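Provenance and format

Records in this collection were gathered into a single text stream. Each protein contributes a sequence line and a token line. The two records reproduced below are adjacent in the stream.
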Amino acid sequence: MTAIIQARGLSKAYGATRALDNVSFTIPPGRIVGLIGPNGAGKTTALKAILGLTPYQGELKVLGYNPHSERQRLMKEVCFIADTAILPRWIRARELIDFVEHVHPNFSRGKCMAFLERTRIDPAMKVKAMSKGMVVQLHLAIVMAIDARLLVLDEPTLGLDILHRKSFYEALLNDYFDQEKTILVTTHQVEEIEHILSDVLFIQDGRFVLDATMDSLPARFTEVLVNPDRREQALALKPLHENSLFGKSAMLFDGVPRERLAELGETRTPGLADLFVAIMKEKH
């Protein structure tokens, strides 16, 4: 099966700062991948390289194309959304639809209008007259009307309240995604996308510190609420991270059999946000 994105030794430097530091990764088709990292970790640079917006060192193929030298051909099969809250306030919905219809060859006006009919958006409305929820719906209508093999979302729900963020991802999952499409999303709201992801990439200081499928995480990582009399025994197993919880030590372990850890205290599978915090602190 041909990879949607294939990177080998991908690097990008800005002066003395290495925004991407010799990273390699593969994203197969039909996946929803979360690219997660702190500010300045290299997420935006990785997206720019994938979208052909910046030169780079190393090997990179996106949908079989070199994104820097074959960007025009690549973008016919890619949809990129930066932030649902960012649309020109002066533009009318129908004018935005006209524009996208002219610039993207795989845009279906019929699909877009069919989605808008399920909302309260009048095509004559200007963006400045819309609520945040309506702006989300307009953006979704545009996205779901584009037959793109790769959808790239960079902080797509930034600035939206939790209800609108939830409705955005639900519509994306239920009305857009299928096994022929691949979605790459960056966000700081880790807990809100955890349930839709098939894969996760944690990036820090230009390097990937975790590249895994979501299905593989429960068998690999375990959090233990360690009984006080077992703390030294637990520390000997070299936890990734430790913090205090209800007077006990909560420790996160990587690759230690759960049955062994159960002897130390109560065990559970950590959430993605907890795992992110632990790995980021451990790598520093």
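Adjacent record:
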Amino acid sequence: MINVVLVGCGAMSKAWLDAIRQIDGLAIVGLVDLDADRARARAREYDLTNAVIGSNLDAVLDQTQPQAVFDVVVPAARRAVALSAFAHNCHLLTEKPLADSPENARAIVEAARRAGRIHAVVQNRRYVANVRRIRRFLSSGAIGAPTSIHADFFVAPHFGGFREEMAHVLLLDMAIHTFDAARYMVAGEPSGVYCQEWEPANSWYRQGSSASAVFDLGGGRVFTYAGSWCADGFRTSWEGSWRIVAERGSLTWDGNDALKAEVVVPGRDGIFDKTQTIEVPPLDASDRIGGHLGIIRDFIHAIETGTEPETRGSDNIKSLAMVFGAIESAETGRRVAIAEDAQ
């Protein structure tokens, strides 16, 4: 049995607790929130009658001595939670983003290394079935090596609350999902970005609801991102809409179920090379999916086997570096190098 303390009992904690109740061999032994009444309400809602409730993480960890901490707090509190978890010899699984700044991200990853503890991030877009299929298909070489990756993200949610007041709202709150998926699907290593943000006249956000970015992913691969939190009409999927161009063909994905590929074949129609449809194979039995549930299972498996989870912090920090690189570029109006020591 793996005993866990969950810290942060706001709205997002429901997605975690819904997944946790489906996992055998995992017990929530403590719930922590600055508002202890909110933690008690979560305990009643999920029948966690034996869980220790508190507003001080260190005190609850001292009392429960768990193997792991699940971090669902606001990003600004990530570093303090991480250092507390590692000081109590706990493994740590955290909601995205890994941290609220490059400095805090590096500090958390380094603290995990020094403590010898497993640290991973809930970067759940990797656990979408079609993201797995695309990665496997491109790795097969069926249409050659990817050269250009393009993603559009256009939705118009009226969240209310903090998002409508925060700076860099699209890049900081949402874009990491798309950035991480792009990096994963083509096995890219980010090295530079140019980005522009703007606030359209129709926006109800304070700053940064629309952005366009161009990333260098290494090996001659370029990734373009265009997105908006205030684009009414023709809404894309939450996964975005994708076109990946490769040496001998292309793949498109609407972010839902429409996943298609074409490969170049001998001959031409006028000035255009001929192409034909090629099947993108279904999921392989080894492909891990399931969003929060899949990632939590992966994390528990890593604890039990001493292996590293796929979304480990030391890798996820590269996707976070794409976010902060884009923000710096938007603020300075220049291309920003994403150096290894910034990851």
